[in-house]
């Protein structure tokens, strides 16, 4: 099993999760993070670190967020690893309260 980053991360992109990942499985896009399912070791450390509660175990991804499982796998092949925490976007707190923002995902 792997962990999956879901919609709340879009345009928030807090990187607290990156700091605790022992295997550097996070990949960074312009305004979203994903987890590489081939690298994730199911350690659970990232879940508690996400301030917007965007990370779920694959088996626990909410029904309306299931499409993020294949999306994480797809984008993990395209995006570069992120191994150090970065500042969140200046408007991240505002975006953390927004739902239905898949159309805002930049590839």
TrEMBL record:
Q: Which organism is it from?
A: Candidatus Methylophosphatis roskildensis
Coiled-coil stretches are none
Q: Where is this region: Disordered?
A: 88-107
User: What's the protein here called?
Assistant: Ferredoxin
Cofactor(s) needed: [4Fe-4S] cluster; [3Fe-4S] cluster
Please state every residue range assigned to the domain named 4Fe-4S ferredoxin-type.
1-30, 31-60
Query: From the UniProt record, which GO molecular function terms apply?
Result: 3 iron, 4 sulfur cluster binding; 4 iron, 4 sulfur cluster binding; electron transfer activity; metal ion binding
**Functional description taken from the UniProt entry:** Ferredoxins are iron-sulfur proteins that transfer electrons in a wide variety of metabolic reactions.
Keyword tRNA processing attributed: no
Task: Say which domain of life the source belongs to.
Answer: Bacteria
Cited Gene3D superfamilies: 3.30.70.20
Question: Iron-sulfur among the record's keywords?
Answer: yes
Query: Keyword annotations for this protein?
Result: 3Fe-4S, 4Fe-4S, Electron transport, Iron, Iron-sulfur, Metal-binding, Repeat, Transport
